[in-house]
Amino acid sequence: MSFRFPESFLWGGAIAANQVEGSHLSDGKGLSTSDVCPNGAFNEIVERQDGDFNIKDIAIDFYHRYPQDIALFAEMGFSCLRLSIAWSRIFPNGDDEQPNQAGLAYYDKIFDELAKYNITPLVTLSHYEMPYHLAKNYQGWASREVIGFFERYAKTVFSRYGKKVKHWLTFNEINVTLHEPFTGSGLPRDCSEQTRYQAIHHQLVASAKAVKACHELIPDAQIGNMMLGALIYPFTCNPDDVQKAQAQNHDWLFFGDVQARGYYPSYMRRKFAELGVNLDISADDREALKETVDFISFSYYMTGCASADPNQQQQAQGNMLRMIVNPYLESSEWGWQIDPKGLRILLNMLWDRYQKPLFVVENGLGAKDVPNEKGEIEDDYRIDYLSAHIHQIGEAIQDGVDVMGYTSWGPIDLVSASTAQMSKRYGFIYVDRDDDGNGTLERKRKKSFYWYQNFIKSQKKD
């Protein structure tokens, strides 16, 4: 690549507490919503019994092995690691009066380890989990009380880590509640649209309150939102398809509109009327929403198409998303359509819409990596995928888009959120563990490890 990224551009990877840490009840941690989904975020909810197996209970044991893993990230040249705090490590039940000191101390050690290598932490407050007690006893984010619990949690970690962490995100893929209400908001999966959107409203208010708290408690910090970047193309140039695609894009852009502009977009009035949704929005809520994010972050894995033709049913599947297959694109082993140019299109679209800095905080290829006869993993398919997407980020920057950084998902093999598999691997670093929990947990560098290391090095000033 002849284009050189800005010197301030942040390079790294992204992980989530519930997919890497393990030690799910260690040192005072409470059960999270992730802990009761042993087969993945989009599968059945199981009340935990003693002796139940959940691969996430150990995951890749980042809880104990973080010094080794962070050293490997530093070896690759990371200037940024996106990670999340497990809310239930800090407030085990969510409604506790006082935080769990052992949980707070754990993340102090993580941030100190990152500082040793000059790796900037980008910290997500809630990444596909919340204390299970809140879901079970308060109906999750359907309860207005949870806003206060989240605000207390946010203020606690801002006060504790304000000198160590200057980049924050509120909710991971906040629009996921549209597709998976339990994972996104701790709601019953058969909840009504009224309940779903009221919970989303409470989350948006809580996010804005966290943004305000961050601005007050850490004035030199930046805090952003995070969306699942689900870009939809019209299947044809038929105006009906164009309008259908616009409506489906509005479904997720609405979250960015509220968090970046500070109020509900006008198009949602019609949406709510058609769904029969009548939100309880107080004057205090409207005032709270005016506190807007400093930057926009998002995940990007695939695009899809929309059609007004009811007979157009061929579906592409990616996580919880169901979109019409784009005949011009190839797909991964898990049916995710691969569209590097879509990333450039999305970056331009979001920049035009918000005029706020953008951050690509998830992008990666899940694949069944198989060691060769020498025990090495030659994942050229991953190198090709990431290289193509990074190239398109460079194109977007040359288009005039302000992009802060890129953190690939996930830089080390971890437990898949959607399926709770280890065999769906994303990392530059191989972890010896299979879907049944067998393995040594030994770490091994893949071919892509050295590719990413050399690429990051090539972007540094001579």
Highlighted features:
TIM Barrel, 6-phospho-beta-glucosidase, alpha/beta, hydrolase, beta-glucosidase activity, two-stranded parallel sheet, GH_1_N_CS, 8-stranded parallel barrel, globular, glycosidase, 462 residues
Question: Which helices and strands occur, and which strands form pairs?
Answer:
Elements lengths: L9 E5 L2 H4 L41 H15 L3 E5 L2 H4 L10 H16 L3 E7 L5 H7 L6 H17 L5 E5 L9 H5 L7 H25 L4 E7 L3 E3 L4 H23 L5 H9 L7 H7 L5 E5 L4 E3 L8 E4 L2 E4 L5 E2 L5 E2 L1 H15 L3 E5 L17 H20 L3 E7 L19 E3 L11 E3 L1 H12 L4
Parallel strand pairs: 1-2, 1-14, 2-3, 3-4, 4-5, 5-7, 6-8, 7-13, 13-14
Antiparallel strand pairs: 9-10, 11-12, 15-16
Question: Concise description?
Answer:
The chain is of the alpha/beta class. 39% of the residues lie in helices and 15% in strands.
Share of β-strand residues: 15-25%
Number of strand segments: 16
Question: What sort of overall outline do the alpha carbons produce when their principal axes are compared?
Answer: globular
Q: At the fourth CATH level, what is the homologous superfamily?
A: Glycosidases
Tally of individual helices: 14
Order of strands in the sheet with most strands: 1-2-3-4-5-7-13-14
Oligomer: single chain
List the secondary-structure elements in sequence, H or E. EHHEHHEHHEHHEEHHHEEEEEEHEHEEEH
Biggest sheet character = 8 strands, parallel, barrel
Overall pLDDT, averaged? 94
- Write the CATH architecture name: Alpha-Beta Barrel
Structural class: alpha/beta
Query: Fraction of residues in helices?
Result: 25-40%
CATH class: Alpha Beta
Q: What do we call the CATH topology? A: TIM Barrel
